[in-house]
């Protein structure tokens, strides 16, 4: 029986959306850094007065770590896939590095929030929960495909991966869109 192309298509669309959203949100973050100043976001001695400021700082930490993951993960994955080694060793290395990168990503988010002494925003929590699901799927694939040579969860892996990318896109877009809509409403009232 032929395998459906739908999970591959969904994953491709989700990855392309992620590749589009991350640079756009990063540009918005640079704009916010210029507008509010770097000290506002990353100086621990800088007072944070409102929940919206805490949410903005938490969002910026999450976006920075996503950008770092985005910039490094793809190159490492491609280097592993292009490596001249046994395909099982390559699979094991691929899924193991995916688990390591995502775990390091989550640890960085946690550590930077503790260093800045703020709590997680709703967007950050959603990204962390989604990443936990993705790490679990990487571990399952590491065992199943790397050691047991079993593709039973391949379609589910692609769907979970696609959902993870879409959830991350929506989570990091939520705050900028909310601020943009509030700004537009404020400008309409001024006229």
From TrEMBL:
Q: Where are the transmembrane segments?
A: 12-33, 54-72, 92-112, 124-143, 163-181
- What name does UniProt use for this protein? Uncharacterized protein
Q: Which UniProt keywords apply?
A: Membrane, Transmembrane, Transmembrane helix
**Superkingdom as given in the UniProt entry:** Bacteria
